Amino acid sequence: MLKCRIVWRKLAPLARASSTLCRQNVRRSVLHNGRIPARVPVAHLATGPAGGGRENQLYVLLVGATFLGGAVYAYRTVRGDQQRYQERIEEIASRPHKSAKEETTDVHTDTTATAALETEAVPELEPESGVAPSPEEPSSPVPDAETAASSETTEPPQADEPVLEAAPEEAPAAPPITEEPSPPSEPTVEQTEPVVLPPPVVESEPVKVESPDPEATEPAVQVVAESESAGLESTPPSLPSHVPYLLIGGGTASFAAARSIRARDPGARVLIVTEEPDLPYMRPPLSKELWFSDDAAVTDTLRFKQWNGKERSIYFQPSSFYIPPEELGNAENGGVAVLTGKKVVHMDVRGNKVKLDDDVEVSYDKCLIATGGVPRNLQVIDRAEDEVKKRTTLFRKIEDFRSLDKVSRTIKSITVIGGGFLGSELACALGRRSQDSGLEVIQMFPEKGNMGKVLPEYLSNWTTEKVKTEGVKVISEALVKSVSCKDDQLEIKLKDGRLVKTDHIVAAVGLEPNVDLAKSAGLEVDVDFGGYRVNAELQARSNIWVAGDAACFYDIRLGRRRVEHHDHAVVSGRLAGENMTGANKPYWHQSMFWSDLGPDVGYEAIGIVDSSLPTVGVFAKATAKDTPKAATEESGTGIRSESETEDVASSTAAAASPIPAPAITQKDDYGKGVIFYLRDKVVVGIILWNVFNRMPIARKIIKDGEEHADLNEVAKLFNIHED
Q1: What is the DSSP annotation of 145-199?
Q2: Hey, how many other C-beta atoms are within 10 angstroms of the C-beta on 652?
Q3: Which of 60, 120, 162, 436 has its CA 20 to 30 A from that of 136?
Q4: Residues 12-40 pLDDT 10s
Q5: CA–CA separation, 142 and 112 (whole Å)
Q6: What is the pLDDT of residues 589-607, one digit of tens each?
Q7: Phi and psi of 492, rounded to 5°?
Q8: Whole-angstrom Cα distance, residue 227 to residue 463?
Q9: Helix H or strand E segment including 305
Q10: Going by C-beta distance under 8 Å and a sequence separation of 6 or more, which residues neighbour residue 106?
Q11: In the 8-state DSSP scheme, what is residue 315?
């Protein structure tokens, strides 16, 4: 400011003189030219009065110099203030180190404030090292080494070698004191040097445990415990508050979507949230291969031998494949994390976030709903007493398999209610076990035969006889009227008056799609098929997709559908993952499903297979290779949907036998064959009965959507007449 005043005092007289000259010139010009003001050029009015040009220039130069000088002065002032501020900050930051150096020189003189701590720590630790404290060694890394040494016994990363040698005799009880930023605690700085000792103690942990005084170590231990407990308590908040890809549900569809996302976006961060305590796994073995395992510990290992003899786990990937959820946000290369035991209870579509059952909120960019379904139960059981419910199993998860396996080994009689895929598979599996254990297995259903809603009546009846040979007592056309518990047994009363006594019930009467989030998310639920209503791209909203059992999708060939099978979960999950990364593909792939009634009878199906539709069956005599066991030996996998590809379709179609088919007559022995389901004379569904690895051909027939005058000719494509 002084410089500015000096400059102004020098420039002000010149500015005033220049201003006076300008005014005088103006007056003169007015007097001389007042008589002819109209002749004054317009340009003169715009540039100023005539005459006195040099004075005006001088005035402009003076004013410009004044402004320039002021700007330079302001710049230098601000620059100087910044430098002084930076120097001040550096000085403040270096005070603790300066005070530490000063205190080390006076450590033996000032004993009034630290006498008690020195007598506790120094005398006991001197015999360990025998090195005197050095006032030169403590440097800026000392506080970091102190805090690290007080919290853990493994300190290699933070152990500075000079510092460790400098103060090996001090007590480790001071870390909590050194953390306090208060300047007046100079004695505590004196105690900070002792804390540098623990790193050498790491080399000999027993010495560390024995040497320090209990009073000196207890405060540090308490601080460590508090910090560790605080870290454990903060684990839920450490869950990423935002993830690019959120998958709700931990089943097959979610896992397929996660793999698809990572394939198209290698750096993607994917979070799977599942209610179950298990990592993603495949469900078909729960009602198939696991029951035929010879391993007594199969319920613990969940490993099984397929029909081809190869062993595998029901889990898609081991735990090492995934990353912890709390590390997902910092994963440099992305990854897939699974949050188990958590349920999404609310979904804010506008805010792009969900709330878990522990009130933790997670936002997302794109979300997949693959919540699957919940097993249905009979209303008569829902209304029954608690003992009946306790003795009823709704089969769906790993825990259901373990529970039913345990129960079946301790009771005498078990009844499976339901004649569909799951009910028939469980009945055959339990029937096989009954041959060795003496367990009575009963299967009842309202249809005339097994899988009566899917198979034609003649094939359903044949299948029922096949199930009976597995040791199952079949009760057809059975409508349950009531269930009660009497004399430590369950009594199932049918509407026709029949009474069945049993020890346990397995209800396999269908699946109810899980649409709990529909209300909070404002998503549409299909009234006819159930499930979330989505378009052909499996999209429910601009950034929300649905896959698996919960998706009611539009099939561009067969119309709106909802499918509850493993292969559909794989295909729809994969497609949803691709579309979440911008593929925008419609659902055109016809998913298949399969069922095995033991190792000797199995079938694969595709499209709409409904026994109410007209059917045409073409059968042939089966051979030893026409069994599920032989098919898995050939393909090398028990999950047949994983091995099928379009490449197999082309090669198989090319290898179709041109040999004319012999005349087929209806027989009681349906060894192998093809069943066509028609709607308006067009094939909309196909079942391959003990015919395997021909599904791509069936898919192409449905995709073409053409009328066929002679389906016997079409059946030749499946080579069912080959020996």
Answers
A1: HHHHHHH-S--GGG--HHHHHH-TTS-TT-HHHHT---TT-HHHHHHHGGGG-HH
A2: 18
A3: 120
A4: 666 666 666 556 665 655 445 544 444 44
A5: 24
A6: 788 888 877 667 788 999 9
A7: -105, 115
A8: 65
A9: strand 303-305
A10: none
A11: B
